[in-house]
Amino acid sequence: MSWPSVVLLAPAGQRRRLEARIRSFALVPEPATGGERLHWQGYSYSFDLSGGILADFEPEELEQVTARIGKPYGVWVSCESMDAARAFLRDVLPGFGGLVDTNHYEIIQAGEFLTLINRHPGWDWRRRPSTELT
Predict the structure, then answer these.
(1) pTM here?
(2) What is the four-CA torsion angle of 64, 108, 131, 92, rounded to 10 degrees?
């Protein structure tokens, strides 16, 4: 199975802040992909901080995101496992006022997403939508 991934969506005006927050983890360039890589807490991650991930969104998805946060900036984060994803997101999401696109038909406010992964530590958003959590 492929690595789980999410897209962090911030208002474009907060791009530098989000980039700085993620780069503080000491990312290293990944020349083969043009992205960046991170080895942290025993896990591996890949990132695309170019904002180009937004080109993969359907027009109606971008309209919904824009209605919620204004013009967006997106960071693609791929994690070696769900445990890796939860570890990284628990560290990076506190105080983040944007959205998390699960890449599985849900775009959730970051604070709500953080609450869900803390309340449901085994939640795999690839297999179970947040609306099914109790």
Answers:
(1) 0.95
(2) 170
